[in-house]
């Protein structure tokens, strides 16, 4: 049994704040400050350069990768940490196109996170070989999988609406057409049970600062299916992905297995924060987490719909078809969200009109859900959102 | 006047250690632990997602970039932080090739850091348009600059020997031939005065964990000459380089100026460490630092040559032609270096036979230099290095 009171105590949650934005940046795990300080003072401070061996820094991207692997159904040795999610998307895409040289289409959808699409655009502009990035509506993806498609590139959970794709079904369809499947798990890893192995993903990538609570700018991960790893020729062929980085050869030779997806020197302070943050998962049953997430979101939808007449649900009503977030549309969603934030109810806004709430059972329960719905009701009834300050858009939303 | 006793107190230096590896990983600045802890506890912990605006995280890659800019002669707004050096090399190279579409040669040298060459190899393999990565001896670079060259890609200071290229002269020659110049300043920034503006570099990149003391995996930087920035079409077109990242448009539009070289979500804990580490430079006169570095290395060479008959200098004898490091060759250099490290004299080894020592006047003085030379003399005279343990190579050297 997962003890959600215990997991809640794992986090530092500011007094009076209802934090429904763990799908954007997870809260601080209480174990993080000491772990990062230990790396800084005892490892960097005392071991200096020898920390790469003595403190095991060099091995951490693989060791921590295995910890992530257990959350996404990836076998040991098939996940490695590093860089940002955008870079990992690029690596996966470049590899997939290289593995399907005769095909010219990357198939994605308009619910994908824009950075994934941007990275694809940049890659295709560089390649300049007549590839096409085909972006269709999420519900039309299956119909566009054909033998022109080199790879499917999808984010499993829509960052705005929370709509969840059927990874195994779409991947099967891609494979039947001879295409590869790249899955962005940014809103999946740590949100619900993921099984890249049974889902047959060829590549899976994700960030760790959302449901995995690694802090701002925490390292990304990449999974490559073991069957194809040795065929991958890295486009971003950095020295730490070399077969023998410290031989300092002039020519690149890809490292063994997943190591070839490493690029440059990994950000070790962020890695320490992530490593400490992952401890909470030792006590979590993912199926229970999923059940609780659906229960809490169902409750939130019921409360909001009962209290607020002028918002509409932007997410699937069927919990199994959602990630661990819910969105509501309101024409003045941006200003309403600012009013909520002023009251300490932290969600976020995604253009054009979605108020987005992450529901993270590790530290969110019924009290917060009902409290948030009440605040939203108050704000809408009183038009509290209708001020110039709340309408003025900040750089980061 | 730079007060080198004061700059020394800025750093935590373990008792009894002579640290001559600041060219690989700088020591811990005493200001770092508190600054990182403040970001973790007061910003991430209390502000959570709102830290991106409230704590100024989103602006830090540019703000810190300007601090680096002052050390390398770059105007405000022309440097941005993020990713790793290998990624920044890739961005610069892809941009340079795109700006010289009719040319097919990247010219580099065998003294370049291998990862720079590997990244070029990976890029050219992806492009598959008949480009050539031409790698010549460092002293032959000038002779190979001709109108086939799209860009020169050089590390100013040779990572093994410390040999320093003449940046302004080679860049002028490149420009005369219509080529662009990319300079890797990994062993330059913080090591001596750099002036990318007067040197006319088109792109400059570097890491911050060496002479800038940002800690393991600290963020890299990229400079683009303001004249060409608006012509750069980013190959790694991530969302934070978009003109309006939070509009979440489906199409990429490059951001204004240097912002377009941003890719994904930056590693903020590392950025905080770097920001704290940079404070020391407020009190440093770079010309004095350079003079002191040359003086200390000259002393080290004299001491080692007087004491040790079986090592040979691997670096230029003329201080103006070196970076801030010195190398000595010894056929058993690897084992000798392990013996030195066991005695607390920390340098490193670069294949095939170079013992490498970074000389960093911010925290190294005559006592350490003479001490290190004495230890080396002892080890060589006693054959203390000649044990199986010292000969056994570790993963990271």
TrEMBL record, chains A, B:
Keywords of the record: Hydrolase, Pyridine nucleotide biosynthesis, Pyridoxal phosphate
Swiss-Prot/TrEMBL GO biological process terms: anthranilate metabolic process; L-kynurenine catabolic process; L-tryptophan catabolic process to kynurenine; NAD+ biosynthetic process
Cofactor: pyridoxal 5'-phosphate
EC number of this enzyme: 3.7.1.3
Leader sequence residues: none
UniProt similarity note: Belongs to the kynureninase family.
Function statement: Catalyzes the cleavage of L-kynurenine (L-Kyn) and L-3-hydroxykynurenine (L-3OHKyn) into anthranilic acid (AA) and 3-hydroxyanthranilic acid (3-OHAA), respectively.
Subunit structure: Homodimer.
Protein name (Swiss-Prot/TrEMBL): Kynureninase
Natural source organism: Boseongicola aestuarii
Gene name as annotated: kynU
């Amino acid at each position: 049994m997962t003890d959600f009171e215990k997991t809640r105590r794992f986090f530092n949650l500011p007094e009076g704040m209802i934090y429904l934005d763990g799908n954007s940046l997870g809260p601080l795990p209480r174990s993080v400050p000491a772990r990062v300080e230990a790396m800084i003072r005892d490892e960097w401070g005392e071991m200096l350069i020898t920390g790469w061996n003595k403190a095991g820094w060099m091995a951490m991207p693989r060791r921590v990768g295995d910890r992530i692997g257990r959350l996404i159904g990836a076998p040991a040795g098939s996940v490695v940490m590093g860089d940002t999610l955008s870079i990992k998307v690029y690596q996966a895409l470049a590899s997939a196109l290289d593995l399907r040289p005769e095909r010219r289409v990357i198939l994605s959808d308009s619910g994908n996170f824009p950075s994934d699409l941007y990275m694809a655009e940049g890659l295709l502009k560089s390649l300049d070989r007549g590839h096409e990035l085909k972006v269709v509506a999420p519900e039309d993806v299956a119909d566009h999988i054909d033998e022109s498609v080199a790879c499917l590139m999808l984010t499993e959970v829509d960052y705005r609406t929370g709509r969840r794709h059927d990874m195994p079904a779409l991947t099967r369809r891609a494979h039947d057409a001879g295409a590869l499947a790249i899955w962005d798990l940014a809103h999946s890893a740590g949100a619900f049970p993921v099984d890249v192995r049974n889902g047959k993903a060829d590549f899976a990538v994700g960030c760790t600062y959302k449901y995995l609570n690694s802090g701002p700018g925490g390292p990304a991960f990449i999974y490559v299916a073991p069957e194809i790893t040795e065929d991958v020729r890295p486009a971003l062929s950095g020295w730490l992905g070399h077969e023998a980085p410290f031989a300092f050869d002039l020519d690149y030779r890809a490292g063994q297995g997943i190591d070839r997806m490493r690029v440059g020197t990994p950000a070790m302070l962020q890695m320490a924060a992530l490593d400490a943050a992952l401890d909470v998962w030792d006590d979590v049953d993912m199926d229970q987490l999923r059940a609780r997430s659906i229960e809490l979101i169902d409750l939130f939808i019921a409360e909001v719909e009962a209290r607020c007449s002028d918002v509409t649900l932007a997410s699937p009503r069927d919990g199994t078809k959602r990630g661990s977030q819910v969105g509501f549309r309101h024409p003045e969603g941006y200003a309403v969200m600012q009013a909520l934030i002023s009251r300490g109810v932290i969600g976020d806004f995604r253009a054009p009109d979605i108020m987005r709430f992450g529901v993270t059972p590790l530290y969110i329960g019924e009290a917060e859900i009902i409290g948030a719905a009440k605040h939203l009701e108050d704000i809408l009834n009183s038009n509290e959102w209708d001020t110039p300050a709340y309408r003025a858009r900040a750089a980061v939303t």
